């Protein structure tokens, strides 16, 4: 006679065996899952790639032309800049490292003729540009490839169509102490100076704020936002298009120069007329 305990153990063992067998996977299931995953991933990648190429149709050409610009820029750099900045842009005693300065710094320095520098001095002076626009872009592409740095600004911030009043306020707060409230420039210490901003292109003004050349501080996008930079450019271009309503502006150097002019020429003229009238009566 079979006891109840033995019967229950037998039933339990049989049920457990069935559950174990029913949960076991076939070796082919794993292979099938891997194949499905590979096919899905490969198909998605192929679809994404074809879509991207369809949208931009020139992706491969752009990459190729970009690498070509870097190669040409490296040749120009080695021939014209490596003497001071080293063959790999790491810098020497005669010139700082260019790793991480970005394309914007190159476009400003080379595009305004400050680089290559004619001689060492308190600061690089603006002079005729030594390279063509395409060569400047190639140099910028090469230096940008050395390390991440500020890129050249978008054209939408260079149209001088922002808020001139807001730009004037920002300029007075951040720039006027060196460049004068009218952008006429001014003297600094040790033979350095803040240049006049009249006639400077909108692109170079933006790049100067972005990269901080010479003695100028860097105004990155956290300090002055791109649209605020555009407002400052709008204010400076407004000054160029609207001459002083008072007539002769005396270089826009402010009340000191105007007061000095009155003292020397105004009072001098009065004294001269007084002496002439006295001599005439005598």
Unreliable spans are: 49-62
Question: Which sheet architecture does the biggest sheet show?
Answer: 2 strands, antiparallel
The strand order across the widest sheet is: 1-2
What is the correct CATH architecture of the domain at 155-242? Orthogonal Bundle
Overall pLDDT score: 82
Supply the CATH class of the domain at 155-242: Mainly Alpha
Principal-axis shape equals elongated
Strand content: under 5%
Which structural class do you get from the secondary structure elements? Answer: mainly alpha
CATH superfamily membership of the domain at 155-242, which one?
Cytochrome c-like domain
Write the layout of secondary structure elements.
Blueprint: H1 4-23, H2 27-56, H3 59-80, H4 82-85, H5 102-111, H6 133-146, H7 164-174, H8 176-179, E1 186-187, E2 193-194, H9 202-211, H10 226-241, H11 255-281
Antiparallel strand pairs: 1-2
Helix pairs in contact: 3-6, 5-6, 5-9, 7-10, 9-10
In short:
By secondary structure, the protein is mainly alpha-helical.
Account of the 3D structure:
With 282 residues, the protein is mainly alpha-helical. The chain is built from eleven helices and two strands. A two-stranded antiparallel ribbon has the order 1-2. Strand 1 (186-187) and strand 2 form a beta hairpin. The longest helix has 30 residues, at 27-56. Its EC number is 7.1.1.8. Keywords: Cell membrane, Electron transport, Heme, Iron, Membrane, Metal-binding, Repeat, Respiratory chain, Translocase, Transmembrane, Transmembrane helix, Transport. It is found in: Cell membrane.
């Amino acid at each position: 006679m079979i006891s109840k305990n033995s019967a229950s153990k037998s039933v339990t063992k049989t049920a457990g065996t069935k559950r174990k067998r029913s949960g076991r996977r076939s070796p082919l299931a794993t292979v099938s899952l891997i194949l499905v995953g590979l096919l899905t991933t490969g198909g998605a990648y192929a679809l994404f790639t074809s879509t991207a190429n369809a949208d931009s149709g020139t992706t491969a050409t752009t990459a190729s032309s970009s690498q070509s610009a870097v190669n040409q820029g490296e040749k120009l750099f080695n021939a014209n800049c490596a003497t001071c900045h080293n063959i790999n842009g790491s810098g020497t005693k005669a010139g700082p490292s260019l790793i991480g300065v970005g394309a914007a710094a190159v476009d400003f320095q080379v595009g305004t003729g400050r680089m290559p520098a004619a001689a060492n001095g308190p600061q690089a002076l603006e002079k005729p540009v030594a390279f063509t626009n395409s060569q400047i872009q190639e140099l910028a592409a090469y230096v940008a490839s050395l390390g991440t740095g500020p890129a050249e600004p978008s054209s939408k911030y260079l149209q001088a169509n922002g808020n001139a009043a807001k730009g004037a306020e920002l300029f007075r707060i951040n720039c006027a102490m060196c460049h004068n409230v009218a952008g006429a420039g001014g003297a600094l210490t040790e033979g350095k100076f803040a240049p006049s901003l009249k006639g400077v292109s909108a692109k170079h003004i933006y790049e100067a704020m972005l990269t901080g050349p010479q003695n100028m501080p860097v105004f990155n996008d956290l300090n002055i936002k791109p649209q605020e930079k555009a407002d400052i450019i709008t204010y400076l271009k407004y000054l160029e298009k609207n001459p002083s309503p008072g007539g002769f502006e005396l270089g826009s150097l402010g009340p000191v120069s105007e007061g000095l002019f009155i003292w020397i020429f105004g009072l001098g003229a009065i004294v001269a007329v007084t002496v002439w009238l006295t001599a005439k009566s005598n």
